Amino acid sequence: MTRGKISRRMELMGHVWPIGGGKGGSGKSFLTSSLGRLSAAMGKRTLLIDLDLGAANLHTLVDVPYPKKCFSDFIRKKIPLLEDTVIETPVENLYLISGAHDNLDIANLPYEQKIKTLKAISRLDYDHILLDLGAGTSFNTLDFFLISENGIFVTTPEPTSIENVYRLIRSIYFRRMRQYFTVTDFKTLEQRVDETFGGGSLNKPECMMRVIRDRYADVYARLADDFKRFRFRLAVNQLRKHDSPDLGRQICRIIEKHLALQVDFAGNIAFDDHVHDAICARVSFLDRYPYTKTAVDLRQLGKSIVQTSGQQLQIHYS
Ligand SMILES: Nc1ncnc2c1ncn2[C@@H]1O[C@H](COP(=O)(O)OP(=O)(O)OP(=O)(O)O)[C@@H](O)[C@H]1O
Ligand SMILES: [Mg+2]
Would you call 147 helix, strand, or coil by DSSP? Predict the structure, then answer.
């Protein structure tokens, strides 16, 4: 029988929103801090967790001076409860677990520590929990993204950023698939895919899924169900005047065509030089420049996200 790492589901206490993007600088942290501020302003107890391990900087975006405690204190067992690493921010209802002390050696969390972290996050009692994830496709990023079904991807309109976000989504797709198999079963699956479709087919989700459907019907049913339940969304950030406002929808269509995975277009966020000014002045962009198109876009995105958060999410882990 095929048994992978997914053996249990658990209700999350709050709504968890992982925010990721394949490329650095696309605006993940700016979006996380902005959505966090908006959620807090709506009276929701909101927690931001900086999981850009090794390159954390979210504290600066919510005007927290160098934090006294940090996520790594939990990993290194200096602070036994994740809840006790939470710090207050100057914004009412907005809390932070900072990653400021985290060194690069924490960037590759061993499996047990990752599971411990995922479980600890699931027990945190906040209305909204936003995870700022690192760029790239490390297993940490993929696993933290898969903690909930409500992940938000961020890309800029540049082809390099789109390429990387597509790669990230594909990696998440394969990671979820992989979680259903043991190491041995997955090797057998790969051999079968290779025998059936030939070289290069291991990179093609449709080939993998065809063999899973034919050989592992029970896994196929659960996996297909899983993929259907995801409500991933894509935001296009730093959209300039000459960029097509339809780009996000086009990317979502491509993802659906090639991965059979529905990713909804969440909206565009306009480019504005004042974002830089606000970050340098360590002030809230939304408060300082509330009438800009970018602020309007952010508020619209924030509203649509809060509206869809009526349903309780679930966490998957072994
Ligand atoms: N809508 C926007 N308009 C103008 N500039 C923006 C916008 N969003 C983000 N930026 C700029 O892009 C820079 C990078 O944003 P941010 O730090 O949020 O990216 P990131 O994806 O978190 O990067 P990293 O992967 O390095 O952590 C910011 O410092 C800011 O100056
Ligand atoms: Mg960042």
Answer: coil
